[in-house]
Structure formats: structure tokens, C-alpha cells
Design goal:
106 residues
């Protein structure tokens, strides 16, 4: 596995964690009777929102990393740039026939 795949996985799982924790926090604030065995529902809801904030931080961090590695791979540097230039020079006229000047012979 490469770093890009791992960061994409982390971003998706963290985003789903944010959504889930916000829903649980809202449920604890509005309808605490649906969730049993919690003594202090307000504190539990606040903890859910705090955890959602931490997960949102991971979403932002992994998204920034994906943008960073995406911008690096889109511009060739060093030997890649030189290879692209050489290929363009060599293959620039590929498939085109040379211009033949038709003139009158004297």
C-alpha cells in the first residue's frame, strides 16, 4: 500500500466518523431516552462533539496531504521534465509527411 491509498482511506473513515459522532451527539442532546445506561447525557454529547472535532482535524490533515501529493505528481521535475522535452522534440512531427515543393523543372 502506498501513502496515497492510506490517506484516502483515513480521510473517508474519518469523515464517516464525524457524521456518526455528530448524529450520536445530537441524539444525546435531543432524545437521551433512546440511549440507555448513560448517567450524564450532556457530558456524553459534549464528548461526542469533541471527538467529531478531532476526526474533522484528521479529515483536514489527510485532505491537505492528498492535495500536496497531487500537485507534486502533476508537474514533472528533474529528469522527468527533460525526458518530456526530449520526447516532444523527437515525436513532435510523428505521422506528418515532409512538405514536398512541386515546382516546374526547367
Amino acid at each position: 500500500m502506498d501513502a496515497k491509498c492510506c490517506s484516502q482511506c483515513c480521510c473517508v473513515l474519518s469523515a464517516s466518523g464525524v457524521a456518526f459522532l455528530i448524529l450520536i451527539g445530537c441524539m444525546l442532546k435531543s432524545e437521551p431516552l433512546y440511549i440507555q445506561d448513560i448517567e450524564d447525557t450532556d457530558k456524553a454529547a459534549d464528548n461526542c462533539f469533541a471527538a467529531a472535532g478531532i476526526y474533522a482535524g484528521f479529515v483536514i490533515a489527510t485532505s491537505l496531504y492528498l492535495v500536496k501529493i497531487g500537485s507534486k505528481s502533476s508537474r514533472p521535475t528533474g529528469s522527468e521534465a527533460e525526458a518530456a522535452t526530449l520526447k516532444e522534440r523527437r515525436m513532435g512531427n510523428y505521422g506528418s509527411s515532409p512538405q514536398v515543393h512541386r515546382g516546374t523543372m526547367s
